[in-house]
Amino acid sequence: MTTRSILAAGAVGCLLLVSGCGNSGPKGDDIAFVSSRDSYYAIYLMDADGSGQRRLTEEVGDPSTPEGVQFQTDPAWSPDGTRIAFASAREGSFDIYVMSADGTGTKRLTSSSAQDRSPSWSPDGSRIAFSRSSDGGKVWLMDADGTDVRRLTDELAEEGEPSWSPDGRWIAYTHRAPGTDVREIWVARPDGSGRRGVTTLGGKSYAPDWAPDSTRLAFSASRDGVRYGIYTVGIDGKGLRRPVRSPGDAFEPAWSPDGTEIAFSRDGAIVVTTLAGVERQLTDPEDNDSSPAWNPRPETDKEGS
Question: What's this model's pTM, rounded to 2 decimal places?
Answer without folding.
Answer: 0.88
